[in-house]
Amino acid sequence: AIDPRRLWESLMETARMGGTPKGGICRLALSAADREVRDWLRDACTALGCTMTVDEVGNMFAFRPGRRNDLAPIAFGSHLDTQPTGGKFDGVLGVLAGLEVLRTLDEAGYDTNAPLLLVNWTNEEGARFAPAMLGSGVHAGVFDRAYADARQDRHGVCFGDAIDAIGYRGTAPAGSVRFGAMFELHIEQGPVLEAEGRTVGVVTGVQGMRWYEVSMTGREAHSGSTPMGLRADALLAAARLVTEVHAIALAYGPEAVGTVGSLEVTPNSPNVIPGAVRLTVDLRHPDDAVLGAMEARLQAAVRSLSPDAGLEVLSAKIWDSPAVRFDADCIAAVRSGAAAAGLPARDIISGAGHDAAYIARIAPTSMIFVPSAGGLSHNEAESTTATECAAGAQVLLNAILAYDRA
Amino acid sequence: AIDPRRLWESLMETARMGGTPKGGICRLALSAADREVRDWLRDACTALGCTMTVDEVGNMFAFRPGRRNDLAPIAFGSHLDTQPTGGKFDGVLGVLAGLEVLRTLDEAGYDTNAPLLLVNWTNEEGARFAPAMLGSGVHAGVFDRAYADARQDRHGVCFGDAIDAIGYRGTAPAGSVRFGAMFELHIEQGPVLEAEGRTVGVVTGVQGMRWYEVSMTGREAHSGSTPMGLRADALLAAARLVTEVHAIALAYGPEAVGTVGSLEVTPNSPNVIPGAVRLTVDLRHPDDAVLGAMEARLQAAVRSLSPDAGLEVLSAKIWDSPAVRFDADCIAAVRSGAAAAGLPARDIISGAGHDAAYIARIAPTSMIFVPSAGGLSHNEAESTTATECAAGAQVLLNAILAYDRA
Ligand SMILES: NC(=O)NCCC(=O)O
Ligand SMILES: NC(=O)NCCC(=O)O
């Protein structure tokens, strides 16, 4: 049995790395705070005698030998990067619960049949470098290393330079660290488990998600002396698109969601009609066909804005992660793991993207969810109790051992 | 007669201070580029034997004695700060044409009756520190020094610290440098003169203008796992307000304008529902009563957004500059100055705010406009020809001499 208190202490200790006054974490991928928590994880794993491998996009793999090293390792983990207004659990829980699994086995002197592999995937959030799930995506062959290196943050800093700067460019070629299956524990980030009073979500899949970058180019002009009819106002066009994204989500039923999360105005001065706006659109639905229809309506909206006097509106799809169904054996291992722990569970589809969604393309994979208070995530007030965190870690251990036995 | 070529050379020489690749100027108030052009102006004025006085908010006054130093000086000038995407003429023309007036008189050995005073007003644009016309506003007693010092830019830097940093905190108390009248030459920044083929606008007044800062506070949450009905999306509320500001301007006739020029999103991440937005609203109309009606409708829109689930929308009026009518004698001096130069002129009301609008509260004041190609301003492509600039400077000289004689 895992040690709830040790797990919680690890969560609280690392939460200081990038910790915010409001009790959250701002630990953007490849920032100084990310380096700090990576160093901490490396030291914690090597202290257990694990071998740490870092690949060329910064994914970290802690290897614990098994009794039969001819078997492919069983992987588990998640990510240590956060949103700018991130909470203390999103991603972090999956990695530190994985560490708790290793510590528990170590203490018990338990050797699994297959080797184990604790993973910290680079830049899962996509907050600093779009798209999300970049490290796991490179590992799974969805993106190549050159594509990853070229991603830029808002200030024009490249992923490749940022990884060199924090010293986490490893030598292992991307995708070279092999494993036979992966389990990822994560907070739900939605309201379902809490509303139903269940502690564990047996995640059977992930909905489809697509990101678009839209740029509107108008004409800067004086706010006081330029008649309304002579304007090409990029922000007015952007505002119309924001309301249209909302309308699209409402039009495709309760499972559809649509969000404009980032928007930047140039030159951003009170008395200048905005000459340019860049924004991102995030559309999601569990059914890829419905998502396709939502995308078509978005594109129609983009086209309908362009003919406005002097305005040019361009959109590019920057991310397309199709709906995923997880592996039946891995799902069964999680379900039995929850039952063994005597925890109330239900099947659930993830609304958020996860590294597991890409890893499912190359290995049997599934996920475990624990509740998020108020369904809140990507928010400094994100909250999951110590008991729920411990329950998740216990189910993770149970699932790994069940899979290892089978 | 002024020297068109010397004037143009001054314009082009100083345009390099903060010059942009697209041929504009980014010379925000109290920036390093602002210091550079201020030093240049100080040296140019002292080379003519003028005495330079700087007041405690950085307004610069170059004094040229007259034959009768018991008379109050005649002031003229404008501002050297620009928008982030500023052109080469907005403000700069008024200061450098004033310098050209001094140089012309010097060369001709002409002594006016009253002393002359060339002025560079601090932070006219309001782009870095809202509100606009801050230096002239302090001089005219509209704002006090403490208010000016406390203004903050987007990065939280105070006006007071910024002025100390560039070394332009003078010793003269604000408002202590007195003068008997002021003339300001400026580009029109609108389409009227060009459309009618006239070179000179005899500016009879300035329309009313008000700025508001609106903040929307919602709740950060995950874009993928938060159902549409559980969101408090600050950007969606902001988008509705942007389209409403546009509708308000259209509803109050062809003279009304309304603009959201700056807008900032927090945390600004593609997969986070925006938790907070701050934006500015700029409403203008030549008739203060109509402007009051526009404001009432804006406030109603702000109120109607608040009841949205969990959203708080607050607005504050941060600037209120009522409509201004300039002094009849100063207007007559400009009109006669244009006639003496044989230039086609027309009366015009300014759509933009100017330092002259505040100075009109304490001294007889008027303005001269020259055309802006395509009505374009606050844009790096802002364009006024060398001939038009020279025409404006000549009318400025003529108007000063006419006023001095009368
Ligand atoms: N779990 C999580 O927040 N992942 C980020 C990718 C997404 O936007 O869903
Ligand atoms: N002339 C000018 O652009 N002034 C800035 C103040 C305003 O917004 O009108």
TrEMBL record, chains A, B:
The protein's required cofactors: Zn(2+)
Domain Peptidase M20 dimerisation: 205-306
Cofactor comment text: Binds 2 Zn(2+) ions per subunit.
Positions that bind Zn(2+) 2: D90, E125, H378
Chain segments annotated as transmembrane: none
Amino-acid positions noted as binding Zn(2+) 1 in the UniProt annotation, renumbered to this chain: H79, D90, H186
PANTHER family per record: ALLANTOATE AMIDOHYDROLASE, ALLANTOATE DEIMINASE-RELATED
Protein's recorded name: Zn-dependent hydrolase
Organism, as annotated: Xanthobacter tagetidis
